Amino acid sequence: MTTAEYDAVVVGAGVSGCYAAATMAEEGLDVVIVERKSESEAGHIACGDALKGASNFPEAIPRSQIEPSITNSVVDHGHFELPSEGTAVDIPVPGELAVIDRLQFGKLLIEGAEDAGVTFHYDTVVNTVLQDGARVTGLEAIRKGDPVTYEAPVVIDAAGALSILQDEADLADATFDTNVTYSQFSSGYREIIEVEEPVEWHDALVLKPTERSAGYLWYFPRTETEINVGLGFQMGEEPMELVDALRRDIENRAEFKNATVKDKLGAAIPTRRPYDSATAPGFMAIGDAAAHVNPTTGGGIAGAAYAGKYAADQAIEAVEDGDPSEATLWRYNERVMEHFGGRYAALDVFFKQKTAYEIDDLTGMLASLPMTKLSEALYSGSADLSWSLKLKTALKSRGHWGTILDLYRTKRHADELLEHYEAYPESPSGFEAWQDRRDDLIQDVYETTGAEAKY
């Protein structure tokens, strides 16, 4: 068996993996990315292609590197179709928004990481995580049919949702979040289609609920004639035939008549709060492998990029100091929670509320809300309503007052939770007490919404 020694091993050549590896390589570390796909297939990832926060990326692979993959920069709002209400609503999306060609985006990220000095090993499947006691020390894998051992002070899991590395590693003695089940994820399926005539909604992200509230359809225009069409559905709900449901909706839309399918792909998507801790001695998880995804939208590109940078910064310190302990890596958790983790955890509160209602109640409520404030809530985890807006909402939402009241109560819980995440502990020693208080806050959410426990 071949043995390869590196300063750091990153598993997965997606967004978070490329940014982590490039950040470390730029500081002189010897870094390898092991990727199960072939070189030609690497970067081909199922995605809605919508990019929130398109103006800002870590320096290791700057925006200029991925600029050619941005195919639509005029999108600026969400267009929510509400069939049960016979209407649609437009919700402005704050900040820069774009739609990308995800395959080209992935290839450009890999190119940027290579330029930074990262080594890539394609056609490499990880079988086992190596450990010395609680500390992760490397991996055993099969590369192009041959066994190979990777040894490194730091291993970074960027292998995506439901990563096998976390099944193989013994993380019982670390703070690493093991409270992870398939029901906290969604199944996603998307196609890239070419239509004959430009769509009139080329400046919008179109969303539509499925027959049940645990899923939604999307139509995201890469260009005026090339559309990413897809469907996501919560795994914990009664199974749904994603492809058939998507196909039925496409066939009923006049703008998609005679459309040509250019690509098909599916994936699992985290729709849960970020991991409470994504560190263990010698080990960190990033991106989808640590649920760094907005649970209400499935968007995770920008968060994954910064999670990669934050993990890399701690890996650099660990290698330079010869100390890959959990205490050294802990600052990575703090930076994630400071940047977006707390906000995503607060948004998960609203996701829990959604699962407790029938789809007609939710669409009726959505049609009655002040859309700008709802938009702010979707991206900040909370929103304050003035008394005039409260009155306006009350007058418009007659018949949905019970649901609106529950939303208001849920908002208060989200505020409390966001404040608690702002007090995320500065070291592992305060972690257990922080978790206990967080769990008490979440129990209040379940009691308010009537939703089933998710964790």
Task: Outline the structure in words.
With 455 residues, the chain is of the alpha/beta class. Helix content is 36%, strand content 25%. It is built from 12 helices and 20 strands. It has helices spanning 15-26, 63-66, 102-116, 164-168, 242-251, 301-321, 326-354, 359-368, 371-380, 387-396, 401-421, 431-449; strands at 2-5, 8-11, 31-34, 50-52, 70-72, 77-82, 87-92, 97-100, 119-121, 124-132, 135-143, 146-151, 154-157, 185-194, 204-209, 215-221, 226-234, 260-270, 279-280, 283-285. A hairpin with a 2-residue loop joins strand 11 (135-143) and strand 12. Helix 6 (301-321) runs antiparallel to helix 7. The model is unreliable at 389-395 (pLDDT under 50).
Give the C-alpha Rg: 22 Å
Mean pLDDT: 88
Can you give the helix content as a percent range? 25-40%
The number of helices is 12
Shape: globular
**Number of β-strand runs:** 20
Order of strands in the sheet with most strands: 7-6-15-16-17-14-18
Gap from first CA to last CA? 41 Å
The biggest sheet amounts to: 7 strands, mixed
Low-confidence stretches: 389-395
- Approximately how much beta-strand content do the residues carry? 15-25%
Structural class: alpha/beta
